[in-house]
Amino acid sequence: MRYKISNILLLFLFFILITSFAENRNNRAIKVVSSYDGKALQGQYGGTNHAVIIGINKYSNHPDLETAVHDVRELSSILEEKYFFKKENIILLTDYQATRENIIKQFEDLIMLKVKQGDNVFIYYAGHGWFDKIFQIGYWVTTEATKSKTTFLQNNTVYQTIAALNNKKVRHIFLVSDSCFSGNFIRKHRDIETVINDEYFNQYYSRPSRNILTSGGNEVVSDQGKEGHSVFAFYFLQQLKNNLFPYISAKQLGYEVEKMVTRNSNQKPISKFIHGVGDEDGQFFFINKYSNNEYQNSEFEKYKLPDEREESFDDLLTKAKDKERAVNKWTAWQDKMKNKFKQLKEIEKNIFLSSEDKLIACNRFLKDISKQNPFSSEDDKMRSYVEKQITYWKTQKKQTTTHKKTYNQPNEIGKDGPFIAYENGTVLDTRSGLMWASKDNGVGITWYDAKRYCENYNGGGYYDWRMPTVDELKMLFDKSKSYEMDCDSKYSLHITRLIHISCWGVWASGTLGMTSSPGYFNFYNTGYSWIHKSRSGGDDRALPVRSDK
Hints:
Rossmann fold, Mannose-Binding Protein A, Chain A, 3 domains, seven-stranded mixed β-sheet, five-stranded antiparallel β-sheet
């Protein structure tokens, strides 16, 4: 019995020893020893520091977050003020700026236009993440993304960005991802040294590095934490703010953040390197402008700005851009409708189209015109006009149909070449399909009265008579035909005897160019001219015409 107790006691002590060793190994302190000055280091090693920092609280189709934007704004401020990152080299994308398209564009601009050999690049993402368990692919979920993974930003796109930066011979790259399922980036692991000194800095800074720090593996991570930050961002920023030494490495940051986050949450950050994109066991270093106690007394700390907690204007600026795009689209659409409206009016004037054809055109236009244009009343005006015209052309169609039923086959009373005269007082030109009144109005008339006369004429039982054009009147002129005019027997008119013109000429529709002078055709000498509408019209006549098609 005693033997057994002794064995149990030995086993218990051995377990305590092993556990204690493991705990001490995981919580070993890192000692930093350096005689360097941060400003001298930056001057010696050169290379521009670039940062792409992305934080998304606002989502169009996913739950909003609370801390991401605050995290990245404070991070941007720390990099600019304490570490050697110039403002013009920091790309900060928040909320509606952080679309998939814009993130890719910023990556492309960084690669093509900004970085050069020997530069350093820091990438930080805070937002939703998603992991495809079937294909084992991770994604960043951008602000405008739908529920479809095809709208997400694939981790492979970020990986390809790092590969392209490697081709540009960038010295150091450090990717930090504070999102769910960030562990998809990770391939292998490195141990952390317990002593970091100037020899360590010289050795690891000179070799290219492709470091990564994630807020967790392939699991959900928390948006909540301390002081308005996620638990991961809080300890990450704390390490950067509290660092008093000339430099702090990505590996050191990862170790300290992993230790504190693991103790204060259910997630476990991972600090490793990115496989296959040029890592040569180097280290990314944040070089401190203020060495040791100098930082604590620096002007930056003395005049440090308060945390920027107020809402940004990003959503309002995006709203304005969306409205501008909508206005431009509606304007382009309305320009097309105006062109169609112009064509419709030309159709209505066309003498070779029937009332039914014009009614069809109006109905087609009415189907196209919108009732929902929020930016203009032009659509309403066009729609109102077309609705009235539909009523008008329906009436014209009905009258024409009624006439055709009543006078379907009027008796012919004479023929002259292409012209056929009917007993109902009409003459048909079989070449053009135009039907003419068999005689003019018989007395002198002004252009205005001639127009009214033609439009109100109902000869033959038709109601769609109108004033002819000059070109239509020219088709009636025939030099081989002639008869004496009523108003002056000394002169003859050259036109078929089936149509009786009582004096020199006939008024025509249309005007001369931009003037107000309408057309006039003289059947005595085949001349046509442009005469002012106000002429008394003693020798001028009105001759109605219509289309019989």
